[in-house]
Design a protein that fits this description.
The protein is an alpha+beta fold and 312 residues long. The protein is built from nine helices and ten strands. Helix content is 28%, strand content 16%. The longest helix has 19 residues.
Length: 312
């Protein structure tokens, strides 16, 4: 059914004494936000993934909808380069590694990666990642952390849990955090896959005991896929039985009122900020008007969200 704008409502809104000066007609507001977001999701072929994410709590966006093979290869190289720089381990995807790599459920987990390589920044600004994160968390969502997991053959399983570790149940009706994992190698039943309980995010709490194990699904994804799940979803992982390394980069995004896991504000350079659109700085919390000292909050309106709809 065709829909037309409510011109009477438009006229009333345009002349309302409650409109804020400096905001152009049509530039902000619920309808503009919703239509912009819907258009982005539709253009990127993500509407079916939004539905799956809402219903099941997890969706796998295939490589052809995510990023170029070149960016995925840059991410693989960056992860292995960080492994070499920080830990002195020269490795390839075909290697089997001992120690943390096959004794911990995550494998080797490396944190605070955003500024280690431009590839991590470029993936953060990827259109598919940005669109589905904005849908799930609002257009003012922020980056909480960028981590990489290097998982070798063997190791224990990771028990079912949610990512809302510091949140008392019942969780908010609004999703407060979302995991967006870039699979840099294939995920299959043999590769130490992520497991999850479909629909468990709607329970808004942690699982208790062995709850949910009789209902798990395994995540299967090709290298280059973006695996997205709600922070309230019950999920875990199984041991890796394949040769070689499973590599992934994990972006955790959240609503701006939540405390970040990794704080990049003091470390990010002007050069890095200049390389990206303003949204990049906003994702690092640069536009959040909180944390003031004796001078009090900024009142210049540059970072206010009044008159817009961050929860669309």
């Amino acid at each position: 059914m065709a829909m037309t704008p409510n011109t009477a409502a438009d006229s009333a809104a345009a002349t309302s004494p409650h409109r804020f000066q400096g905001l152009e007609d049509g530039a902000v507001g619920l309808r503009a936000d919703v239509l912009d977001l819907y258009g982005s999701l539709q253009k990127l072929g993500l509407l079916e993934h939004v539905a799956e994410l809402d219903i099941k709590g997890l969706t796998v966006i295939p490589p052809e909808k995510v990023a170029s093979p070149e960016l995925i290869e840059r991410l693989r190289t960056a992860v292995l380069d960080v492994l070499a720089r920080r830990h002195g381990v020269q490795a390839s995807r075909q290697d089997n590694l001992e120690g943390e790599y096959n004794s911990m459920p995550f494998g080797k987990l490396m944190s605070y990666l955003l500024l280690e390589d431009a590839a991590f920044q470029d993936m953060l600004m990827n259109p598919a990642l940005q669109a589905i994160a904005s849908y799930r968390l609002g257009k003012n969502c922020c980056l909480s952390s960028v981590q990489a997991a290097v998982k070798s053959r063997g190791g224990p399983a990771l028990a079912l849990h949610t990512d809302e570790l510091y949140v008392a149940p019942p969780y908010s009706q609004y999703t407060t955090g979302t995991n967006l994992t870039v699979a840099l190698t294939d995920y299959s039943a043999e590769d130490g896959p992520t497991i999850f309980v479909p629909g468990s995010h709607k329970l808004r709490r942690q699982p208790v005991g062995n709850e949910g194990y009789d209902q798990i699904e395994r995540v299967e994804a090709r290298a280059g896929s973006l695996i997205v799940w709600d922070g309230a979803l019950w999920h875990g992982s199984q041991p890796r039985r394949s040769e070689g390394l499973r590599l992934s980069v994990i972006y955790y995004l959240m609503r701006p009122h939540m405390r970040v896991q990794e704080d990049y504000q003091a470390e990010v350079s002007a050069e890095v900020l200049a390389r990206h659109p303003p949204r990049f700085a906003a994702m690092l919390g640069k536009t959040i008007n909180l944390g003031w000292k004796h001078q009090g909050p900024r009142l210049d309106g540059a970072d206010t969200l009044v008159g817009s709809s961050p929860y669309c």
